[in-house]
Design brief:
Blueprint (H helix, E strand, L loop, with lengths): L4 E6 L3 E6 L3 E7 L2 E4 L5 E4 L1 H4 L9 E4 L2 E2 L2 E2 L2 H16 L7 E6 L5 H13 L4 E6 H8 L10 E6 L4 E7 L2 E8 L3 H16 L1 E2 L2 H11 L10 E8 L5 E7 H7 L1 H17 L2 H10 L1 E4 L8 H9 L3 E3 L6 H9 L13
Parallel strand pairs: 1-9, 9-10, 11-17, 17-18
Antiparallel strand pairs: 1-2, 2-3, 4-5, 4-6, 7-8, 11-12, 12-13, 14-15, 15-16
Helix pairs in contact: 2-3, 4-11, 5-6, 8-10
Length: 332
C-alpha cells in the first residue's frame, strides 16, 4: 500500500484515526495490556479495555496517556505501532502522520509525541493543537479574521481557544475532563453510599444518568460495588440528582476556564463570539446539560458540534491537505 496520510487524535481515553479519502478508520480505547515480567504487549484497544481492573498480578492493563500527555513512552510507542499497522497493514512507504496535542504542552511533551510516532513507523510527523483541529473538524472556517470559540472536552484535558486567521489568539488547557468526571463519581459514591466502584462503572453512570444541569425527571440506575464496611458485593440505586451533586465541582472548573478565556479575548473577537456562539467538541461535552450550564453562566449561545467525538480526528485529517498553510512552528 502506498504511504497514506493519517490524522490521529491521540486521546487520553480514545485513539481515533482518519485516513485521507477514507474518513474515520479506527476508534479504539487508548488502553494497553502488558506482561509485567516480559514487557510483552498482550492486547491493545477494546480487548485491553475489557481487562481494566480484572488482571492477574503479572499483567497490567494501563492507559499510557494521562491528562493529554504521554505518561509511559514505551507503551505509547507500542500502541501507536499496533494502530498504524491495523490501519494500513504493510505500507510501501511509511505514512505522513499528523497528531493533535493539547494547546499548552511543553517542548519535552511535544518531542515525546514526535519520537513515539516516528519510531512507530511515520515518515514525517506533524503536530496540530487540539482546539484548531476541533474547529476544522466542526466545519468552522478559521482562515478568516473573525473570532471562533472552541471548547474541546476530551478524556484528560479540556482545551479552550479563541481562533482567528488560522491560529489561537487566546487559549488554555486544563486537566479537568472526562476522567475527572469519572473520579468525582467514584469519590461521591464512596462517601455517600460507603461503596467502592471501579472506573468503568463510574463511566457507565456518567453516560447513562450523569448530568450537570437539573433534569426534569430524576433518572436512576442500579450499580454493583464493594461495600466498604462488610467487604462484600452490594447493589445500590443511584439517581441523576446525585450525579448533579457529584459532578458540580469539575463542571464548574470548566465553566471558570471558559470565563477566563472570554475575559482575555480582544473586544472585536468577543463580539464575533457573542454573535456566532461557542462550539463544543469532544466526548466530554456530551455529559448531559454541560452546554446549558455554560450558556447560562456566560450568556452566550452554546452549540454541540455534529459528530463531536470525531471532530478532532476529522480536523487533524483535513489539516493534512493544508500542510503548507499550517504555521511552520507547529511542524514536528
Amino acid at each position: 500500500m502506498f504511504g497514506q496520510d493519517i490524522g490521529i487524535d491521540l486521546g487520553t481515553a480514545t485513539v481515533i484515526a482518519y485516513v485521507k479519502g477514507k474518513g474515520i478508520v479506527l476508534r479504539e480505547p487508548s488502553v494497553v495490556a502488558v506482561n509485567n515480567i516480559t514487557g510483552e504487549v498482550l492486547a491493545v484497544g477494546h480487548e485491553a479495555r475489557r481487562m481494566l481492573g480484572r488482571t492477574p498480578g503479572n499483567i497490567v492493563a494501563t492507559r499510557p496517556l494521562r491528562e493529554g500527555v504521554i505518561s509511559d513512552y514505551t507503551v505509547t510507542e507500542k500502541m501507536l505501532k499496533y494502530f498504524i499497522g491495523k490501519i494500513g497493514g504493510k505500507f510501501l512507504f511509511a505514512p505522513r502522520i499528523m497528531i493533535c496535542i493539547p494547546s499548552q504542552v511543553t517542548e519535552v511533551e511535544r518531542k515525546a509525541v514526535i519520537d513515539a510516532a516516528s519510531n512507530a513507523g511515520a515518515r514525517r510527523v506533524y503536530l496540530i493543537e487540539e482546539p484548531i483541529a476541533a474547529a476544522i473538524g466542526a466545519g468552522l472556517d478559521i482562515s478568516k479574521p473573525a473570532g471562533n470559540m472552541i471548547v474541546d472536552i476530551g478524556g484528560g484535558t479540556t482545551d479552550i481557544a479563541v481562533i482567528s486567521l488560522g491560529g489561537s489568539v487566546v487559549s488554555t488547557s486544563i486537566k479537568v475532563a472526562g476522567d475527572k468526571f469519572d473520579e468525582a463519581i467514584v469519590k461521591y459514591i464512596k462517601k455517600r453510599h460507603n461503596v467502592m466502584i471501579g472506573e468503568r462503572t463510574a463511566e457507565e453512570l456518567k453516560l447513562n444518568i450523569g448530568c450537570v444541569y437539573p433534569k426534569f425527571q430524576d433518572m436512576e440506575m442500579d450499580v454493583r460495588g464493594r461495600d466498604l464496611i462488610s467487604g462484600l458485593p452490594r447493589t445500590i440505586t443511584v439517581y441523576s440528582s446525585e450525579m448533579l451533586e457529584a459532578l458540580e465541582e469539575p463542571s464548574m472548573l470548566i465553566v471558570d476556564a471558559v470565563h477566563n478565556v472570554l475575559e482575555k479575548t480582544p473586544p472585536e473577537l468577543a463580539s464575533d463570539i457573542s454573535d456566532k456562539g461557542i462550539y463544543m467538541t469532544g466526548g466530554g461535552c456530551l455529559v448531559d446539560g454541560l452546554d446549558k450550564l455554560i450558556q447560562e453562566k456566560t450568556g452566550i449561545n452554546v452549540m454541540i458540534a455534529e459528530d463531536s467525538i470525531s471532530c478532532v480526528a476529522i480536523g487533524t485529517g483535513k489539516a493534512l491537505d493544508n500542510l503548507d498553510k499550517l504555521d511552520r512552528s507547529r511542524r514536528g
